[in-house]
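User: Quick one: structure for sequence A, then sequence B.

Assistant: Sequence A:
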Amino acid sequence: MTAHTSLPRRAAAELIGTAGLLVVVIGSGIQAAELSRDAGVALIANSLASAIGLGLIITLLGPLSGAHLNPVVTLTSWWARRTSGEGLGGREALVYTAAQTAGAIGGAVLAEAMFGRMPGTFATQVRDGGHLLVGEVVATAGLVLVIQGLGRTGRTRLIPAAVAAYIAAAIWFTSSGSFANPAGTIGRSFSDSFTGIAPQSLPGFVAAQLLGGAAGLALAALLYGRARATGGTNARPAAATEAPTAVALEAAVARVPVVAAVVVGAPVVAPVVVDVAVEMEAVAESLAETGTVEGTATTKADYETIG
């Protein structure tokens, strides 16, 4: 991202980019369903169009805003600032999230109008069941891990293609179809089409996505160590890590019933998920044998890319 790009311009990029992504996802779904009665063929067309469109949007808007297009990715950038000093501030994260949500809704309405359908009609496709929520946790955790892994190893140029490829695959290998984006999920509730989701299914999906984002950060910390603004290592003597590891594990296990109750029974709120992320990242960092990969200092751009 260009360091001197103003926040309003970055917000505009996030709004336009997320709107464009929803036009691609919903529009290709409508077109595919109209051209083929075979659900498999329609899904192939939809997943390919969605992946190609996503990769192009990230490539085009990444230099402006980081092309998050996804509140979960924005939250990981905000979390990176809390832990390493690099990333978005709280106000910036709120502006990004608002722009992404507005853009997603606008993109859904535009896609409906483009195909001669009634704009603003809510989706009727109910997507419920614990297995679908597990699919969303897996899809979102994998997305965050791809972004964080490439960023922390100095390979950010691969992120547009890698994220596009991951989403294309995740649409197929997850039970939920890999929404993996709270703003996009809300936007898709405004389209009663192949890719839609009924409003009553939103709380569970958004909760699972936030939990998946926390899990993705924990996995990145476990594999690559805690993100740092400068180079160095996070390795610690064994005597200093054994006790914290046990304490962190106990704390994380104690959180599990709370997280399960929130996901199954009510919408998750961001503070709860952030608290869970603290516990999970503490466990991951304690278990990691080494810190940041040698020679891969993390920069601001590493955290400002989406999926």
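Sequence B:
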Amino acid sequence: MTISPATAFERPAIEVVGLAKRYGGTVAVDGLDLAVHRGETLALLGPNGAGKTTTVECCEGYRIPDAGTVRVLGLDPRRDAAALRPRVGLMLQEGGVYPVARPAEVVQLFASFYADPLDPDALLERVGLDDARRTRFRDLSGGQKQRLSLALALVGRPEVVFLDEPTAGLDPAARHRTWEHLRELRTDGVTVVLTTHLLDEAEELADRVAIIDHGRLIALGTPDELTHGDRDELTFTARPGLDTADLGRAVDVEVIEMRAGRYVVHAPNDPGLVARLATWLERHDVRLGELQAGKRSLEQVFLGLTDEDPPADAQGPRPPAQVPPARSAGSPSDASPRQRSDSPEVGA
């Protein structure tokens, strides 16, 4: 994402400073700092229990922080809820729609809450629900429910949208159609916070990616910054069980089979190394599957960063250059549309 000089001096759409939240003896969020620029799409990633959902719920006004401040469009999500609610759209992962309600009825109802909503009929067609407009919610497929949730998040023309797993349960065609909707939001200048477990989705859609683990921000940057680490590493795939000792002697560096058929060479990426590797593979009649040098997938970065037991002194976001190689719908009503018990799930 390219931020204009004028935008650079604007206040971020979302500002989180020193956010902390504890459930009993469990720390869900631990002094988190994060800013989301206006018009930016930010992917918020982390393993289960990392603190993603708690962070987003504090931004939405559904949780009260124990410490720190949260501002959305310059407003406090709880104190200024009445002023903020019409400007924000929420897409939850499930729940929030009456089982016998029909998509056309629900979108029309939500549209009535806003001063300048999108046209409900056009919106249903846009998200691919025109044929299901009279189908009861309980009879919709999982993917159709997701598309209805997206429609309800967008009907009020929000300035900020929080999307929780927006493509969960969608077939590939519907998934790519949803991606197009999200790209249109960015074109329209809407700020999007996207939580997803689909790392290719984050890599495809996000201007920046924030990775949270154990309640702390451990990496922040563009997908390109995060996937171009500063360690020298070459990985390749071939048939499992190669003689890595002999291959290592041939390329003058240790070769490790990380898992069946995937190999890593920790050495500077230079043409001589690639040539020696190719020569050995040819000599042993081994077909090369794929070769990757100087860039890793976001999944590799994510798995390398989110260890089960991080060092006790780990703190703060890691600058991108130091990355080691290695919720149904938003409602303007006072009641939260989240379906949750009085005891919050630790692990959200």
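Residues 234-293 form a domain with the Alpha-Beta Plaits fold (CATH 3.30.70). The chain has two domains: 9-227, 234-293.

User: Thanks, that's what I needed.
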